[in-house]
Amino acid sequence: DLIPGTDDSMTEADGGEGEDSCSIMVAVRVRPYSQRELSDPNVKRVVSMGGNETTVTTDGGNVHRFAFDFSFWSFDQENGDFACQGQVYTSLAQPLLGKAFEGYNTCLFAYGQTGSGKSYSIMGHGQDTGIIPRFCEELFSRAVRASNKDKVKISVEISFFEIYNEKIHDLLASSKEKNGKKATLKVREHPVLGPYVEGLSTFVVNSFEDVEGWITLGTKNRATAATGMNDKSSRSHSVFTIVLTQTKTERVENQDHDHSITSKINLVDLAGSERQSQAQTTGERLREGANINKSLLTLGKVISVLAERSMASKKRKLFIPYRDSVLTWLLKESLGGNSKTAMIATISPSHHHQEETLSTLRYPLCNAPSLS
Ligand code: ADP
Ligand code: MG
């Protein structure tokens, strides 16, 4: 599904030449009731799903219908009618792994209000592993197969950081503290390779077990930084990046020639999408709330422009506001150009959250396939 190249006026690197392919897949996942909701006799389930359609019937009786690529259900477990972690992985993330091996850059985002299941979907909970560990595990099993069968040498490098208040913190560096505060890293832009985080720790990993160790450390660092900071983890984006390089050596006229393709995979647990309540919007918190909203808003704009661009049949020049937030700036090369994107929108089933649920379902493609 290649679409005609459309240059974005901000980048020279990916230019207007050549074929530009971009596609976005969106899934909705409703979490089961929490213990608290289960023990509330007045709780109402406002979400229902059928096929790829998600319906929200609000307390007031209004019906809102949405269609996405996938709808992941969490009720009726006794009938087997619910989407487990494996199914979410297979539908949404596994195709991205295939695309990464084909050389595409890929991104996967979890979007939704705090408590709706973003981290559960992206990272998992205990034995119930989520997308990142499953992705890494399959990446290494494919890598082993590729090196045995096709004599392709594979190298994998990972990094893990969070963006809080438009500032970047390395989640894998334990010794970079300045005056007891975590060092803040800056975005730089390489003329050819594009934006990157200056000084970010990157590690070469040789097995899934290697990756697991870094995931554990990063998750721990994220949680530690969050304590005592008004649940910072719900206000920060975390970005787990995998750089996959495949090298094939060919022998031509008695000489070895290496061909490498590199693809970047970003697996992102976004900050909570809930609107900040009036009471909290002063001083530092106001700035923080504004930063989160701005970066989620910018991401929404970038994704909807890219989606529009991939649907536009003729070459059109569309402005993509990558630089309006640190997150989109850093992901520029992985969102535009030669890339594949997936989004999992996580929602609560209960009437308590119906307004946030509707705003999640309207993001980012507010004018895309809503059926009513
Ligand atoms: P978020 O990261 O969006 O703030 P979490 O992923 O932490 O939310 O989820 C909140 C709680 O709900 C956690 O205890 C999590 O284990 C649970 N949960 C979320 N989604 C599911 C799901 N699909 N199935 C089972 N439990 C879930
Ligand atoms: Mg979370």
UniProtKB/TrEMBL annotation:
One of its GO terms (cellular component) is microtubule. Its main location: cytoplasm. This is Kinesin-like protein. It is found in: Cytoplasm, Cytoskeleton. GO terms for molecular function: ATP binding; microtubule binding; microtubule motor activity. Belongs to the TRAFAC class myosin-kinesin ATPase superfamily. Kinesin family. The chain holds residues 220 to 591 of 591 of the full protein. It comes from the Eukaryota. The keyword Metal-binding does not apply. ATP binds at residues 112-119. Keywords: ATP-binding, Coiled coil, Cytoplasm, Cytoskeleton, Microtubule, Motor protein, Nucleotide-binding. The keyword Nucleotide-binding applies.
